[in-house]
What does this fold into?
Amino acid sequence: MSFRKVVRQSKFRHVFGQPVKTEQCYDDIRVSRVTWDSTFCAVNPSFVAIIVEASGGGAFLVLPLHKTGRIDKSYPTVCGHTGPVLDIDWCPHNDHVIASGSEDCTVMVWQIPENGLSQPLTEPVVVLEGHSKRVGIVTWHPTARNVLLSAGCDNVVLIWNVGTAEELYRLDGLHPDLIYSVSWSRDGSRFCTACKDKSVRVIDPRRGTVVAEKERAHEGARPMRAIFLADGKIFTTGFSRMSERQLALWDTENLEEPMGLQELDSSNGALLPFYDPDTNVVYVCGKGDSSIRYFEITEEPPYIHFLNTFTSKEPQRGMGWMPKRGLDVNKCEIARFYKLHERKCEPIIMTVPRKSDLFQDDLYPDTAGPEAAMEAEEWVAGRTAGPVLVSLRQAYVPSKQRDLKVSRRSLLHDGRTTTAATASTGATTPPPTPPTAPASTRFSAPPVLGSGNTTGGRLEEVLQEVAALRALVAEQGQRISRLEEQLSRLENGHV
It folds into this structure.
């Protein structure tokens, strides 16, 4: 009797990585040499930001994605910090706002001009001061506008309302040692941390309590990291007692034993995990490695399934990760990394090979868009909401970004209740603007009709799309009429 090896079926089994051509890289960049295990790079659909070497303070480059090739040494930087920059993070709800944490113990939030920098940017929109030691982690809330978390080497986690430059929550006493990583849950109700005391903690920031804790998640003394997955599980990377690198998957309801544990190799670079909630694929990049491993997380044992490895010759100093809405859906691109070398940044494209040119629904379910699900006040009041999803079928076009404005009003009164104040970010023009159509009214493009072989089902789909679009146009026409009427009243002096 012959036994053939059964290969697990997965649409991501043949994913392959490919670096772009040399002329599409960002060259002659002096990547930061600071000894800190952060990614040193942050990317969104408009810009790539890279922490660079700077004399007399800290700085990072912000380049429009299309500005490839050699970057001039005199290219302007964001250079308001007085100490080296340790971490940067783009706001998920505004592609022109970025936060930075530094050795100067401050967090700064910056507004990047529409077309990038034409001169050095030294004045942040807001400076957040509250840490007594260097700030190594900054990360935005995934669904609430203007909520930013920072963690410092003082073992304190601070949560800020950037719109009012106010400290919302101060979580000290929860971590006895250095915090290695922080990751929000998908709805932003909790976050998980990895600490130097080898514990992984799940924390409810609004109550200021540790919901769950796993001591000695990884036995090794080297840095570990933990990230929340979409279904509430936690994925960790760390080291064994014998200094072998490990991956583990944990159920927050039962942290006694890991659901899955895998050992990789005995290299000494910290493993940086990047997670795609739409496909449930985790990409693991080791600092100093020259490879990216990727794994699929499933509901059936062994839960962590190795897919493949992308290998190259040069080691990576850091890594940037493009949000899903910035990918090229026409080429079946499911991930894009921005690998930092010593003197350049090289995009790496992960692709699922498909023969069809049609939109691949199974690869691109609706993904988190740039609209915030709620305001900071609502989140403080106890509301929880998942991200506002958008379709990628029409290669999603974002709405016009709003400038970040800081209002120094307090949002908190006794018991941390909210006021009826609106968010501090808003349009700067006085006339009322029509609200953005909600995600449910974004309609996908009609299917491509075949040549001479159109089925009744496709025709019916097209007719339904046309009817829906006509209804939407009629509704928007009525809204425009109402707004024009209001505008004419204001111009004539009538309230």
